[in-house]
Specification:
By secondary structure, the chain is of the alpha/beta class. The chain has one domain: Rossmann fold (3-Layer(aba) Sandwich). The chain has eight helices and seven strands. It has helices spanning 4-8, 18-34, 42-45, 48-59, 73-86, 109-118, 153-161, 192-201; strands spanning 63-67, 91-96, 125-129, 142-147, 168-177, 204-209, 215-220. A seven-stranded mixed beta sheet has the order 3-2-1-4-5-7-6, sandwiched between helices. A hairpin with a 5-residue loop joins β6 (204-209) and β7 (215-220). α2 (18-34) packs antiparallel against α5 and α4 (48-59) packs parallel to α5. The radius of gyration is 17 Å and the shape is globular. The N and C termini lie far apart (48 Å).
């Protein structure tokens, strides 16, 4: 797909009005997914990435943090949706070790950078290459936290202990890519439901979308919340 880089390099330049530009760029993203450019990911093939984009559009976050950027499809979808709502006043910090993955193939950093460059998003992303399981959170005031790691109970619990869930603002949203309790090829439960129950006991609200590979929505509960 390297030849596409020159063809699409101007997609994020803002030369088109916001809505037509979004439709054009997101259409390119869909075309790439159908061409299996991101074919390794069950999250992408399930089309749950479209739900991620829709939630990003509704929440209109200015401060996005993604744990596990992979090859960039979720990153692209979130930035396209957020930019439609808030323009250029957004930033995304992405973390990834780009080393061994418990589920799926190892993704080199160069692939992520190439995909991001295809949409001209390099200036919107601050990429940090670290081992997330050994790195305490140094972020705060996160509007949208997207977690796309091997979402087993132990790893998610580790993310909580490292302070990532607490770094989200009171009105922010946490999206965990992967809410299906059992992963294909593994008989034992991944423990995601157990982790959600523990989050509820700690003052979070959770909702799990059980379409493989699943998606978990998490937000802090506030006493001032009202439904109408």
């Amino acid at each position: 797909m390297r030849p596409c880089s020159g063809l699409f390099s101007g997609l994020f330049s803002g030369r088109l009005p916001a809505i037509p530009a979004f439709c054009w760029r997101y259409g390119i993203l869909i075309w790439l997914m159908r061409r299996n450019h991101f074919g390794h990911s069950p999250y992408t093939s399930s089309r749950l990435v479209h739900l991620l984009a829709a939630l990003t559009l509704v929440y209109a976050p200015r401060r996005i943090v993604q744990l596990g950027v992979g090859e960039g499809v979720s990153t692209i979808a979130m930035l396209l949706a957020a930019r439609l709502k808030v323009g250029n006043g957004i930033s995304l910090t992405g973390y990834d070790s780009f080393s061994h993955r418990a589920v799926g193939e190892t993704i080199p950093r160069e692939r992520f950078e190439r995909n991001i460059a295809m949409f001209g998003m390099e200036k919107l992303i601050h990429l940090i290459q670290i081992d997330l399981l050994e790195s305490p959170c140094r972020e705060e005031g996160i509007d949208l936290l997207n977690i796309d790691i091997d979402n087993s109970y132990h790893k998610l619990h580790r993310m909580y202990d490292m302070g990532w869930f607490g770094a989200v603002s009171d009105t922010g949203l946490i999206l965990v890519e992967g809410g299906y309790s059992k992963h294909t090829g593994f008989e034992e439960s991944r423990g995601i439901m157990k982790f959600c129950r523990e989050l509820q006991q700690k003052g979070f609200q959770t909702m799990t979308i059980q379409r493989y590979p699943g998606l978990v929505l998490v937000r802090k509960f506030r006493d001032c919340d009202e439904a109408y």
